[in-house]
Amino acid sequence: MTAQAAGTHQSSLIADDIDAYLQAHEHKSLLRFITCGSVDDGKSTLIGRLLYDSKMILDDQMAALEADSKRVGTQGGDIDFALLVDGLAAEREQGITIDVAYRFFSTDKRKFIVADTPGHEQYTRNMVTGASTADAAVILIDARRGVLTQTRRHSYLVSLLGIRHVILAINKMDLVGWSQDTYDTILAEYRDFAAQIGITDFTAIPMSALKGDNITEHSEAAPWYDGPPLMHLLETLPVEDDLQSRPFRMPVQWVNRPNLDFRGFSGLISTGVIKPGDRIKALPSGRESTVERIVTFNGDLPQAVAGQSVTLTLATEIDISRGDVISIAGSPPPVADQFEATLVWMDDEAMLPGRPYLLKIGARTVGASITEPKYKVNVNTMEHLAAKRLELNEIGVCNLSLDAAIAFDPYAENRDLGGFILIDRISNRTVAAGMIHFALRRSQNVHWQALDVDKAARAALKGQRGRVVWLTGLSGSGKSTIANLVEKKLHANGRHTYILDGDNVRHGLNRDLGFTDEDRVENIRRVAEVSRLMVDAGLIVLVSFISPFRAERRLARDLQAEGDFVEVYIDTPLAVAEARDVKGLYKKARAGELKNFTGIDSPYEAPEAPEIRIDTTKTSPTEAAEQITAWLEGELDYSI
Amino acid sequence: MVVAALASKPEISPATLTHLQRLEAESIHIFREVVAECENPVMLYSVGKDSAVMLRLAQKAFFPSKLPFPLLHVDTTWKFQAMYEMRARMAAELGADLLVHQNPECVERGINPFDHGSLHTDMWKTEGLKQALDKYGFDAAFGGGRRDEEKSRAKERVLSFRSAQHRWDPKNQRPELWRLYNTRKATGENFRAFPISNWTELDIWQYIHLESIPIVPLYFSQVRPVVERDGMLIMVDDDRMPLRPGETPMMKSVRFRTLGCYPLTGAVESTAATLPQIIQEMLLTTTSERQGRAIDHDQAASMEKKKQEGYF
């Protein structure tokens, strides 16, 4: 077993002079790294070895390890280090989500946090999660097998997440007789590939994690290798070294107001350095002020740097709230509402263009949708493929449109101001991770035209309140029939109305759309936008669309002012609608002649809290129209 | 004792923050994020050393404001007397709103660790916690869990999502990227937040040392009355403890590495009476922290099971 120079030194200091040890330990830095590779490459063995060599294995754990090694180990009774970390193997057997596990160890010089993630393609999201906080990546290669597809995939993800320090651990060198030729061949092949994906700088180490060669000490088995052993490299890599030299940025998490005399802005400094007296700018408002104090529990600071959580007070009162970004005045981040970004899709439910999601970046959460998927990347070959949607674990480049402008930096420059997550508005799940490339130029050039005559003015002229009555339900549920009757009644009452009917709109505005999930989303998005324009014009709009997905109905609702969206659920059971089959569509769908038919092979998500629900098994179309009209007329406020 | 205030060094090195500075900043960030986005958060306060660090981090996160949430102690009535004293002292010093919950069913049935075995923990702690969260309608609860404690915690999220029935579904946890935490949830759903996920036991001790954080004296060695029972040294903390035939309390110099219900918490023989000595002993010691707790010996993977049921 390898001599444990680092560990031995630590323990003697602990025993002889604990105060000196504590002093030294206090000044350790922290390195977060990720290990990439499959179980076969020796990843678990390597992590187990690092824990063991840094004396992080205690007696009771060691006893359990020895017992387990004899019982289920793969090393013929010798210690199987992989067992130390393989909670993951058990998970696989139980079918539980294979996950990111975090391990901790420390040496004389550093504390380490290792994100241990599985390597297979179906776990891309886990690896991306682990990589998002890593300062460094250790990519393992089995010397017998060389650069494999998964080596490429891992390297691509490491490069995508912008991990700056890459260590190529060419492992199991003992099994190829410590052949320098083998090592050189692998190295050359990897260097060619790495350059293609933008990894220009990496360090390669020949090693045997199992035997402990080139882990903590330079191995005599490879006299031709004159670089450092792995532990030495991990102890000396620069950490977050360049963050402080960049322009000051701090997303505001919380406005600190203990009393009327104190107003502070709390956050974690993302980049740069700040001192009292520095001129700052708040984004997206663009208002400027000067830093007065840097407040902490331990007293005011003369300066604060990237990585610290602080509270700033300003010399003048300007309006700043949670989600804003405070930056140095001379070098503020740009502000935009449309971006090109890379997305890593993390949810079982596929990404659909046009669907409204929530985007969280820094401390800001805004509505967002994908306007244009450009391509997806085959993570094994780096090929770009045309894509209309992204499935779980797929990576693609897309354009996004936000409901509001945000301050940002490209991800390559700042992880906090360029990295975001997308959240599903219905399930609340985190469905994607994204990295901003740049703002789209049109978002800076298309400005909103302010108009003097507004919605209220137009509606007042008609003596009514513009709003959308949104009828949703299965095909054949009676939506169009009812909408038609409602319009007749409203018209007779002197209301200005318009019907947007699913079938009719598909003959014109939406005739380029089919019935895939993507097209259904786009179909609803367009109708929602058109109805918004009509409501803006003061009309009462009757929308008669199957609109099967809750998310899109939510989008339509969100486009309207509070109370201007009236959801009417025409509740007809599938069996009843199918028995009626007015247009003969169900028959066709059952015969397989019509694909993606709602209720048959495409889902219908019933409204959870519609303003009005019509049970057509108990209510005739005429009665339904009367109910809806009465509800609207009773609700309508003509006083505006 | 050395008192070096962590963040108040006159000149911060322009090079690199220390590991404790980075951990502290991360924890503060998590506290603020949850408070900013949740309607009714609470901090679970168990009076132990991890809680002591959590309390200090929370103070730092919101200074000069007071804690923007109450503290909740899910009490079992079987904690060490010294813990109750510390609880009262901390609440007074911080001016914090302290809520104490004791499961009324346990009170009524007299559930205790001597007669009721693992039911004691299930009912006082697991059920008690759920009752308290429901009673006050808390939608987020801060806890002092750390990933280095044992295997199933290594995979735990910083924000651990729970159903309205407080169940933890390991298959349905949200990915956590960068410093972004998704706090969205439906009505009734809630989550546990673990701001010190990435701290190790050594980090905790070192921070207590550097920041001079007050901790329960039981962590320091002192001559105390103990009996040896089932391989553990159990302190006779009050007269509710029935002695078995042949048991006579012995006076031994002992201390505690973790604190819980006194009849379930094993002491270690030790002479470590200062923080550096405790740290020294911990670093030279050769058994891991949770060995002193009876709860983990029940069965393999017991912690994972308890968590699924709603235990912290």
Give Rg of chain A in angstroms.
31 Å
What is the CA-based Rg of chain B, rounded?
19 Å
Task: Give me the number of helical elements of chain A.
Answer: 20
Structural class given helices, strands, pairing of chain B? alpha/beta
CATH superfamily heading of the largest domain in chain B: HUPs
Distance between the termini of chain A: 85 Å
SS class of chain A: alpha/beta
- Second-tier CATH architecture of the largest domain in chain A: 3-Layer(aba) Sandwich
Number of helices of chain B: 8
What is the CATH superfamily of the largest domain in chain A?
P-loop containing nucleotide triphosphate hydrolases
CATH fold topology of the largest domain in chain B: Rossmann fold
Supply the CATH class of the largest domain in chain A: Alpha Beta
**Basic shape of chain A:** globular
CATH class of the largest domain in chain B: Alpha Beta
CATH topology of the largest domain in chain A: Rossmann fold
How many independent structural domains of chain A?
4
Brief summary:
The complex is a heterodimer of chains A (640) and B (312). By secondary structure, chain A is of the alpha/beta class.
